[in-house]
Amino acid sequence: MEQPNLSYIHSMSGGDQAFERKLIDIIKREFPTEKKIYFDHITSDDYIRSAAHVHKLKHKISILGLDKSYEIAVAFEHNLREGNTTLQVEFESILTVMTTYLENI
Amino acid sequence: MNCIIIDDEATARAILGHLCKSVDNLSVLEEFPNAIQAIKYLNHKHVDLIFLDIHMPDFTGFDFIETIKNPPKIILTTSDANFAIQAFEYDCIVDYLLKPITPERFQKAIQKAASKDFSRSESTSTEQVEASTANDLYVNINRRLIKIDIPSIYLIEAKGDYIQIKTEDQNYTVHSTLKKIEDKLPVDTFLKVHRSFIINAKKIIDIQDNSVLIKKDVVPVSRSKRSELMERLNLL
Fold it and tell me: Which residue range forms the structural domain that includes residue A65?
């Protein structure tokens, strides 16, 4: 499975390591909340609100360099807006990978 | 050039803030996690440029643009490429940045915003002329666009998420805001006299204390609007 990386963060930081640390801290703080809200909505079959939070999570997926996973998230968001949950398992696997990664950096 | 950042995602605000630091003569005045706070700020502050997220809960970026009067230059930031066509229907939007934003693409957007070729003021004035010379207003009610003769409107009242438009012949309830309709009405005829009421000044019957009588409606006039109302009157 595709693994997260810090390529984007390094490329946009201009070598500012303090900023890189700050940004990673913000992501580590914000990601669990967004993930929880997504699970709350998907558990209650609220697909439209779930899609809105997949949309938000997409940004963090791309920041962590998960290009293929990003495409899955795009497709899953679209599916949710159409009222179906195809790719839910795949999307939630991405969240698991991200969780593990963020817990260890 | 100064700017503000509006995005409900802290990560996005941090990235934009950092990219702005790399630009000479660009200062970030404030960052806002939602559009409502930004609107309040813009009521008393001028900014040259806004970085605006489209997808925000309750109040989207497009709602924001529709709400503010004379919007400054705006660079949209979004994870969704599907809104690009809609974005360029607004003259104030100078560019459309897809997240994650790269420094190179960011610099290009800033150059566009700073470009002397981008003349927002011209397009804004054209819109004002169109709005002030047209006598018709179209409102969307149950998916029908209904034409209302603007001079026949004597009162508009805000009612939650709706406005009630009262004309000589008929009343209409429309899902909209006073702010939106105010921008479509000729300023020499219509006046917002209270946060919930716009009146047609030509239809006033009398004024007493802090209220005006229009047809059979008694409309409150807020203290802050009273002097503006009095200036409009041909007083003997």
Answer: 18-103
The total of structural domains in chain A comes to: 1
Tokens of A74: 């795009």
The pTM of this model reads 0.65
Give the chain A residue nearest B103 (alpha carbons): A12
A88 and B CB contact within 8 Å: no
Q: What is the rounded CA–CA span in Å between residue B122 and residue B139? A: 26
Closest residue in chain B to residue A67, using alpha carbons only: B100
Higher pLDDT, B154 or B188: B154
- For residue A83, being part of any structural domain is answered with yes
pLDDT the model gives residue A19: 96
Tell whether ipTM is more than 0.90: yes
Helix A47-63 with B10-21: angle, nearest 10 deg: 40
Q: What is the pLDDT of residues B77-104, one digit of tens each?
A: 998 877 767 777 788 999 999 999 999 9
On chain A, the residues whose CB falls within 8 A of the CB of B15 are 12, 23, 63
> Which has the higher per-residue pLDDT, B159 or A95?
A95
Q: Is residue A10 part of a domain?
A: no
A74-103: pLDDT as tens digits:
999 999 999 999 999 999 999 999 999 999
Ordered by where they begin, the domains of chain B are 2-128 (3.40.50.2300), 137-232 (2.40.50.1020)
Report the half-sphere exposure of B198 (CA within 13 A, side-chain side).
25
Cβ distance A59 to B12 less than 8 Å, yes or no, reads yes
Q: What is the pLDDT of residue B119?
A: 44
In a domain, A96, yes or no: yes
Give the Cα separation of B183 and B185 in Å (integer). Answer: 6
Nearest to B9 among A11, A14, A59 (CB): A59
Answer yes or no: do A56 and B55 touch at CB < 8 A. Answer: yes
pLDDT tops 60 at residue B164: yes
Q: Is A71 on the interface with B (CB under 8 A)?
A: no
Chain A, nearest residue to B104 by Cα: A12
Q: Are A87 and A75 within 8 A, CB to CB? A: yes
Give the minimum alpha-carbon distance from A6 to chain B in angstroms, rounded to a whole number. Answer: 13
